Amino acid sequence: MEAVGVAFLHDVAASIQDAIRPRQPHGRSLGSLLAAPADDRSGAAARLHVAHCVAHSSGDARRTGCPSASIGVDNASSFTSNGTSSAGWTWVHDDMHTASWTFNITSLESAKRGSVHLNVDALVSNRVEGGSGYSAERVRFTARCGDARQTKTVKLVNAFRPMFAGNSLGIGWAASGHSSSPLRMVKVAATTEITVTTAGPYARDRAIGFRQSSVSLGFS
Q1: Residue ranges of domains in the chain, CATH in brackets
Q2: Backbone angles phi, psi at 17, to 5 degrees
Q3: What are 149-169's pLDDT values in tens digits?
Q4: pLDDT tens digits, residue range 51-106?
Q5: What pTM, to 2 d.p., does this model score?
Q6: By the 8 A CB rule, do 215 and 141 touch?
Q7: How far apart are CA 4 and CA 23, in angstroms?
Q8: Cα–Cα distance, 154 to 182 (Å, whole number)
Q9: Of 125, 120, 121, nearest in space to 166 by CA
């Protein structure tokens, strides 16, 4: 009986130690994490910070050092274009080409005034399926909600180098940007959609590739 009691106490002690022992992410020891390359350590630290924020999501963001959750993105519910289709993208280039995105704006009802911006992730080249490293200046997008209409300008920045005028086969086409000023969200009775449209031609004869996820509405 005494041996059984000693074994029971030993099991209890082991359980307590296991409960209070710090958990390492993804089964990796702290030593292996510190021994990892700097990029790996920074990525793991970011994941730990996210986990910390999730665990403290009900607390004060200023106290925990976590970002506020009062920000969102509205993705397009549909996309249409008469441009040149290729590999899941549609290239808008000449004056007959257009691309349009439709958004259900009910999710924007709680957005702060002056916080809604166009965000654009696209492909930019010197021609349809052309070279790498090209940006696009003053790309115009027109937003319509009922009878209300407004035009916003986006600069699509391509940070890739080197620039190459021949067909780069997709390398160095990606470019992104946002509207230089926020959308004026005018409430229109019985209207729950907003349509955003762009049309060619573009400055410096740029060709721009779009798809449904290319345009989104960021808000806070």
Answers
A1: 2-64 (no CATH), 72-219 (2.60.120)
A2: -60, -40
A3: 999 999 999 999 999 999 999
A4: 333 333 333 333 334 444 588 999 999 999 999 999 999 999 999 999 999 999 88
A5: 0.68
A6: yes
A7: 31
A8: 11
A9: 125
